[in-house]
Amino acid sequence: MAVFQVLFGLAVFAITRDYYMTDAPSVGAHAPTRIAPATAWPNVVTESNIARLSSSATGEAAVTDPIEMSRQADEFFANRQYEQAAALYERLLAFGPPNADVHNNLGLTLHYLGRSTEALDRLNDGVAVDPDNQRIWLTLGFVNSQLGNTEQARTALTAATKIGSDESIRQSAMTMLENLP
Questions:
Q1: What is the count of structural domains for the chain?
Q2: In a domain, 53, yes or no
Q3: Long-range contacts of 75-79, Cβ-Cβ distance < 8 Å, separation of 24 or more
Q4: β-bridge partners, 30
Q5: CA 126/CA 136 separation, integer angstroms
Q6: What is the CATH number of the domain that holds 33?
Q7: Which domain does 85 fall in, by range?
Q8: Can you give the pTM of this predicted structure?
Q9: Does residue 68 form part of some domain?
Q10: If we measure between CA atoms, which residue out of 170, 108, 168 comes closest to residue 142?
Q11: What is the reported pLDDT for 6?
Q12: 147 vs 97, 113, 138, CA distance in Å?
């Protein structure tokens, strides 16, 4: 099952990577490259969580599998159906344990919905969950730069260049840093 989850995550990443690289709003010459798909969910999904979450469906048949919710949320995001994506990312956060990738995805989605203050709250929550998550620092820098919060953007983007091992994230952060006033 773990191998399937890893392969599924990689497949979603591969399929959606080009979309996020070419269609995301730009900051100067570059924008965030993509959002990471939600990671595999440990065995913390309980019957009570499923019952509670299934009552808050997004207008379609209630999905209770966190992996399927993550896939659907990513698909909604890719199709620019941000309201539906945000609703599913919110539901994913309820499954626990806290997941920085879901905070990142929700934060970026909220920003695209024009709810940038709430987006910053979610992104900061994600940083608190995993301060070594390179992508969430990049997204935090991107949202702050879009809002004109230059110093906060600079701090977040500098962190994205210093942590993690994803060179494409590092390069995006460096490009955004160069384009800050």
A1: 1
A2: no
A3: 77/35, 77/105, 77/108, 77/109, 78/16, 78/19
A4: 27
A5: 7
A6: 1.25.40.10
A7: 2-39+60-179
A8: 0.68
A9: yes
A10: 108
A11: 44
A12: 30, 14, 14
**For 85-112, what is the HEC assignment?**
HHHHHHHHHHHCCCCHHHHHHHHHHHHH
pLDDT at position 29: 27
Asked, for residue 55, whether it belongs to a domain, the answer is no
> What is d(CA 110, CA 101) in angstroms, rounded to the nearest whole number?
14
pLDDT along the chain (181 residues), means of 10: 49 45 36 37 41 42 82 97 97 90 97 98 97 98 97 98 96 97 93
Query: Is 164 part of any domain?
Result: yes
Q: Locate tokens 């626990």: which residue? A: 96
